[in-house]
TrEMBL record:
Its main location: membrane. One of its GO terms (molecular function) is calcium ion binding. This is Cadherin domain-containing protein. Potential calcium-dependent cell-adhesion protein. May be involved in the establishment and maintenance of specific neuronal connections in the brain. PANTHER family: CADHERIN-87A, PROTOCADHERIN ALPHA-4. It comes from Gopherus agassizii (Agassiz's desert tortoise). PROSITE patterns: CADHERIN_1, CADHERIN_2.
Length: 800
């Protein structure tokens, strides 16, 4: 390929270029290189592994131009992708380079690459016209006279644009090149000897311009020189060159300057016409015009400092003689820059969206700015609004990086609209702005949270299995799977059973269900924790405490308790006590005692809340030898539950007539009870008659009134077998034996005579009972003893 082997120059300079961690690499490549031309081993020069280019998302961005270069990701080689024309890219600027940005991720790094486009000699010198005409007067024009010619131009630069001129062989003319103070070269035709129109009326010459490139390129123009007769004075300007400064963007018609030429001839040979003659830049004729009569030069097109900074205008003054003569001068128009170009912004976004846990310093976007103006008008500063978690970092030339300045929180702000403003330092300054939308991506940085630390729920016992108890709900401000909450119970033991045997929670809805009926009598309060866990990686969780209070239901009927001694609050009248218990609580366990058939109670009554059976009056023989009471025990629940106890009461006269069977009852308890009742009635009748005779006898001798006398007497006995209550009551020397039909054991109490009666009228005392080795319980402090194999340790004994 053209200049591929010999014209390729590669210069690599590696050094630290900016604070984010990048390097600068500079290459050179000739213009007009074909597609695929090798530029450099970019990956190797940047210190990157070729095998990691794809995984690190290697990419290259050109600064505002099309993709002239590409990188082979398999080899890491930078090569030419499209045609490179230095003259098209940079015009006549001596330095022509294309800036590239190379970006890789994991970690994010940015490298600046500059590729210089080298000029090759691909443009031949070009003359503005194919033929130039000159008129020179014979004889009057002396040897050494100089005639300006229109020089050639070469679009290349440097040596490739260094022109040399050669004139075809002529004995009358030669070529000379002059360099003025503006470093502009003027081409003149020099007359070597006088002309003779009659000998040669016209001269045809070929002027060749050759550049300094390799190989050389050349351009030619035909010179037609007409030899004129007479009119021996040509117009002349007061100076050969003029210099003027003019602001760019001057309006059409703006006067640049006025030139003036004089002619020493007379008449029409003195009259002068002005024209714009030779120009080295083709666009000058479209930019300026001259008044042919006055020589006033004015703006005819657009003056743009960014396109052309200096215009060279050649003015020709020609008289009106029959054989016109002309004079020439150069006008150099320097265009002054004005701040007429606003800065240009190009934003290349990277690393979007930005994770909310990205560390400060993370590069978000690359920003390149440019201003076609020069000086202060071309100095550009970039800025973003304050109070944003971002900042701009100047990296390389007119490049900036938008980096993260502080931590961001997506739950607080999910996206930022950042307006980047570029402002130059001109007067007045111009600015341009561009916006970038920086989205913040979610990371799992928020654990699910419950709206309250403790949930309290009240559940009535005996709930059906699977009953819904309550619903807990946790919220997670994250997004998608990071906000998907699942619920579970924190396992622990409740007694000997796991918590999961009592309750369960739906993993998605948070509904809590009871797996089995709850029993208040077994469990009053169940406290446990529910965990809410999101689906993020790693997952986060939050806990809440649930307090479940079991409410009592009236599901337990009263039950008669084992035998205990009565409290004896109504001393002398209490003959027994019914004591029942209820496994419920509150009103459901508040018991009430009453006789099921009040009409059959006879001389007895039962305490409504104490359960004590007492006499309502003195016992009489008319009351019969025995009584049978059915006691109804019921609670205050809704609905009320109840139980009944049957109590048999017998009147006896002598304790010898009473015999109790203390053996436990078997399964056929009904017939034995009936037998005991019959036997008890018989024994109590005989004993009662005997005791009655003794009591009457003692009463008549000791005291005339009905009051009981304290002295020697026969033993009295009280019998009872009602479960849970044993009582003794004596009134008017009558002995009462009380027994329940379903008793589990019997009791016999023997009481001797008391020599000194400390209490009268049947006062009741409570004594401590202590069982001996044979199961007997001895009443300490007296000779009385009790035979009972299942006593609870106390018995209430009354004096008699």
């Amino acid at each position: 390929s053209l200049y591929h082997n010999e014209g390729l120059l590669r210069l690599v300079l590696l050094h630290t270029a900016w604070e984010v961690g990048s390097a600068q690499v500079r290459y050179s490549v000739p213009e007009e290189s074909k597609h695929g031309t090798f530029v450099g081993r970019l990956a190797q020069d940047l210190g990157l592994e070729v095998a990691e280019l794809v995984s690190r998302m290697f990419r290259m961005v050109s600064s505002g131009r099309r993709d002239y270069f590409e990188v082979n990701l398999q080899s890491g080689v930078l090569f030419v992708n499209s045609r490179l024309d230095r003259e098209e890219l940079c015009g006549r600027n001596p330095l022509c380079a294309i800036d590239l940005e190379v970006i890789v991720d994991k970690p994010l790094k940015i490298f600046h690459v500059e590729v210089e486009i080298q000029d090759i000699n691909d443009n031949a010198p070009v003359f503005p016209v194919n033929e130039q005409n000159l008129s020179i007067a014979e004889s009057l024009t002396l040897p050494g006279s100089r005639f300006p010619l229109e020089g050639a131009s070469d679009a290349d630069i440097g040596t490739n644009s260094r022109l040399t001129y050669k004139l075809s062989p002529s004995e009358h003319f030669t070529i000379n090149v002059q360099t003025n103070e503006e470093q502009s070269k003027s081409l003149v035709l020099v007359l070597k000897q006088s002309l003779d129109r009659e000998e040669t009326p016209a001269h045809h010459l070929l002027l060749t311009a050759t550049d300094g490139g390799k190989p050389e390129l050349a351009g030619t123009v035909q010179l037609l020189i007409t030899v004129l007769d007479v009119n021996d004075n040509a117009p002349s300007f007061n100076q050969s060159s003029y210099k003027v400064r003019l602001l760019e963007n001057a309006a059409n018609g703006t006067m640049v300057m006025k030139v003036n030429a004089t002619d020493l001839d007379e008449g029409i040979n003195k009259d002068i016409l002005y024209t714009l003659r030779g120009v080295t830049q083709p666009h000058v004729s479209a930019t300026f015009r001259i008044d042919s009569n006055t020589g006033e030069i004015s703006v005819n097109g657009e003056l743009d400092f960014e396109n052309t900074k200096l215009h060279e205008v050649r003015v020709e003054a020609t008289d009106k003689g029959n054989f016109p003569l002309s004079g020439h001068c150069n006008v150099f128009v320097e265009v002054l820059d004005v701040n007429d170009n606003a800065p240009e912004l190009i934003i290349t976004s990277h690393s979007l969206p930005v994770p909310e846990d990205a560390p400060p310093g993370t590069v978000v976007a690359l920003i390149s700015v440019s201003d076609r103006d020069s000086g202060d008008n071309g100095k550009v500063t970039c800025s973003i609004p304050p109070n944003l978690p971002f900042r701009l970092v100047s990296t390389f030339k007119n490049y900036h990086s938008l980096v993260l300045a502080e931590a961001v929180d997506r739950e607080r702000v999910s996206e930022y609209k950042i307006v980047v403003t570029a402002r130059d330092e001109g007067a007045p300054s111009l600015s341009a702005s561009s916006s970038i939308l920086v989205a913040i991506s979610d990371v799992n940085d928020n654990a699910p949270a419950f709206p309250q630390p403790v949930y309290t729920v009240f559940v009535r016992e005996n709930n059906p299995p699977g009953a819904h108890l309550l619903t807990v709900s946790a919220s997670d401000p994250d997004l998608r799977e990071n906000a998907f909450v699942s619920y579970s119970v924190v396992e622990r033991s409740v007694g000997e059973q796991p918590l999961s045997s009592y309750i369960s929670v739906h993993s998605e809805s948070g509904h809590i269900y009871a797996l089995q009926p709850l029993d208040y009598e077994e469990l009053q309060v169940l406290q446990f924790q529910v965990s809410a866990r999101d689906a993020g990686l790693p997952s986060l969780c939050g806990n809440v405490t649930v307090q479940l209070f079991v409410l009592d239901a009236n599901d337990n009927a009263p039950a008669v308790s084992p035998a205990v001694s009565p409290a004896g609050s109504v001393r002398g009248h209490v003959v027994g006590k019914i004591r029942a218990v209820d496994a419920d609580s509150g009103y459901n366990a508040w018991l009430r005692y009453e006789v099921q058939e009040p009409g059959a109670a006879g001389p007895f009554r039962v305490g409504v809340y104490s359960g004590e059976i007492s006499t309502t009056r003195a016992l009489e023989e008319a009351d019969g030898p025995s009584q049978r009471l059915v006691i109804l025990v019921k609670d205050h629940g809704e609905p009320s539950l109840s139980a009944t106890a049957t109590v048999s009461l017998s009147l006896v006269e002598s304790p010898q007539a009473v015999k109790w069977d203390s053996r436990p009852r078997g399964g056929s308890e009904g017939p034995l009870v009936d037998m005991n009742v019959s036997l008890m009635i018989t024994i109590c009748s005989v004993s009662g008659l005997f005791v009655l005779v003794i009591v009457v006898y003692v009463g008549l001798r000791c005291h005339p009134g009905p009051e009981v006398m304290c002295g020697a007497g026969k033993a009295t006995v009280v019998c009872a077998s009602e479960v849970g209550s044993w009582s003794y009551s004596q009134r008017q020397s009558r002995n009462l034996c009380v027994g329940e039909g379903t008793a589990k054991n019997d009791l016999m109490v023997f009481s001797p005579n008391f020599p000194n009666c400390a209490e009268k009228s049947g006062t009741v005392k409570e004594q401590e009972l202590a069982p001996n080795s044979s199961g007997q319980v001895i009443l300490r402090g007296s000779d009385t003893f009790i035979k009972n194999t299942q006593t609870s340790g106390k018995s209430l004994i009354g004096s008699g």
